[in-house]
Write a structure and sequence with these properties.
The protein is α/β, with parallel strands linked by helices and 250 residues long. Helix content is 34%, strand content 23%. Helix 3 packs parallel to helix 6. About 2% of the residues have low confidence. It binds adenosine-5'-diphosphate (ADP) and magnesium ion (MG). The site of adenosine-5'-diphosphate (ADP) has 10 residues, from helix 1. Adenosine-5'-diphosphate binds next to helix 1.
Amino acid sequence: MSGAELVVQDLVAGYDAAPPVLSGVSLEVTAGEVLAVLGRNGAGKTTLLRCIAGLLKPRSGRVIVNGVDVAGWPAHRVAKHSMALVPEGRRVIPGMTVIDNLKLGAYLLPRSNEINRALDDVFAVFPALVAWSRRRAGTLSGGQQQLLSIGRALMTSPSVLLLDEPLTGLDPLFQTEVIAALQNIKSGDRSILLVEQNARRSLNVADRGLVLAEGAIVLTGSASALRDDPRVQDGYLGTSRIPSPRPDAA
Ligand SMILES: Nc1ncnc2c1ncn2[C@@H]1O[C@H](COP(=O)(O)OP(=O)(O)O)[C@@H](O)[C@H]1O
Ligand SMILES: [Mg+2]
């Protein structure tokens, strides 16, 4: 197995003194793989990503990236260990140009020639960003901002990429574009964890998936098996509980 992979073991996490939001989550993303983490609002998806990325310290459990347990490390140190997060709601800096937003993503790269090479790499994947590069990010549409947000995360060539609901709030055309972009950046030495409420779309690019409900994994399977599973219909995920939970090792 190649080095670039993410293993989460028995992750327990929550906020302040409240009961845990995640009650022992385990999963694996191998190199070259896209794992979809599905679940309705409040299931704990963002909390999971925050723990993996070092933005929230887990109460217990392990987050192993490229063979090293990074659980509890601060976010900047996790980022240096070749991980990047595309946060919920895009969060580009609206008053800054597209190119300056991209350069922000390269804060870990010390030299300007490395930054320029990273820009070239990102422009090669997202040619549309070239045409927008001098525009202020705030003038882009939601879908364009999402592509920028993904491009910014790619500036450090992360081996583990986390995306938090990249499709939410986008019209269907841009959802297709974002999925195509993910297809593009899927590669043999990168592990992608794709958190989504849109099961149908995300299972089109994912290799495997799991369903998170109330902080626990209630369903796992190949993308094709989950696509055909009546319990994983979009509407169902959005409105109901998953019956007869049968967790198995992810
Ligand atoms: N900063 C926070 N402080 C306290 N509780 C939080 C915080 N963020 C999320 N929660 C709670 O954790 C649970 C899971 O939230 P979240 O991880 O955001 O779910 P999802 O991303 O699947 O919608 C929810 O009950 C939510 O209210
Ligand atoms: Mg969320």
